[in-house]
Amino acid sequence: MPTTATDVLDMDTVAALRHAVLIISRRMRHQQEGTELSPSEAAVLGRISREGPVTPGALARAEHVQPPR
């Protein structure tokens, strides 16, 4: 029988990890204030940097947003 994540991690561990991720997320958001790029713009540039040239439609699908019209 396959093992699932809940079989391996107890709920206390999951809750502690979720809490840590939320704290890190808030700190990162706070540190980005005043920067020139939004988190969405940074995500798009990172994807293009990793994957190379991409059409606007393919980029929109990969980022789960509406494609340009």
Q: Explain this structure to me?
A:
The chain contains four helices and no strands. The protein is mainly α and 69 residues long. The longest helix is centred in the N-terminal third of the chain and has 21 residues, at 11-31. It is flat and about 45 Å long. The chain starts with a helix and ends in a 6-residue tail after the last helix. 0% of the residues are buried.
Gist?
This protein has 69 residues and is mostly helical. 67% of the residues lie in helices and 0% in strands.
Mean pLDDT over the full residue set? 82
Class derived from helix and strand content? mainly alpha
User: Largest sheet at a glance?
Assistant: none
Rg measurement, Å: 17 Å
| CA-based shape | flat
How many helices? The count is 4
Q: What distance separates the N and C termini? A: 47 Å
Helix content: 55-70%
As a percent range, the share of strand residues is under 5%
What are the key terms here?
mainly alpha; 69 residues
Fold blueprint:
Layout (H helix, E strand, L loop, with lengths): L4 H4 L2 H21 L7 H13 L4 H8 L6
